[in-house]
Amino acid sequence: MKDRIAAAPVRVSNGGTPVSADELTRQMANRLHLNEAQYIRLKAANQIKLARTDEIQWQYKQDPSTLQAKLQELDAQYEAECRRILTPSQISLMHAEQSQPVLPKTEPAGNGLG
Fold first, then answer.
1. Distance between CA atoms of 44 and 58, rounded to whole angstroms?
2. Which of 89, 10, 82 has the alpha carbon at shortest distance from 41?
3. Where is pLDDT greater, at 4 or 84?
4. Relative orientation angle of helices 64-85 and 36-59, to the nearest 10 degrees
5. Whole-number percent of the chain with pLDDT over 90
6. What is the DSSP string of 16-39?
7. What are the start-end ranges of the H helices in the chain?
8. Is the backbone of residue 33 left (phi > 0), alpha (psi -120 to 50) or beta?
9. Global pTM value
């Protein structure tokens, strides 16, 4: 069991919650309405991407320019794999959601009267 957990990369998202390949794929499946075959293939692609991202970040942590180049190369490979798995409309939806800015969560402003 420990081997399975160690082999499954877990990433911490901007919100501070852990995101595994399983969770990432589940989120994508909900947003993109994946069929079962797409889900299985995308989960494998997500596992590879997360593992390679961790590897690249560790390997090139002392060289920021190479780190950025390697991460961009990995993103291009991931994009190509997604294009083989997803339909054009799903790709468009994925890009539309990725381009939306992530706003920090803030408390609602009060009216100052209380």
1. 21
2. 82
3. 84
4. 170
5. 64
6. S-EEEHHHHHHHHHHHHT--HHHH
7. 2-7, 21-32, 36-59, 64-85, 88-99
8. left
9. 0.71
